[in-house]
Amino acid sequence: MKQILSGNDLIKLLDALSNPFRFKIIAILHQEKKYVSQLARELGISRPLLYLHLQKLEEVELIKGHHEISETGKAMKYYELNSFNIVLNEQIIADLAENLSIKKRKD
Question: HTH arsR-type domain: which residues (predicted)?
């Protein structure tokens, strides 16, 4: 996972972690890499929905996907967890908030 350099990076990371399915995906991939159908079955969700969650986790570099050829010759996309360590405290939030881009509402 890349270093968090801005408040916007932190918000994207926290957003990616804010969904129970994505949280569960991280827990599953912590044990071992899995291919898409395995993850969908374990989570009890459709593959299209799973892909949306996987994309969100890939965007913040918490997971990575790669193709492997199975013994039967079929290309399968596997996902695995990237190693990460998140440290967050009030000083880090204050520092990152200084360069946070916030859209102002039009009244």
Answer: 12-98
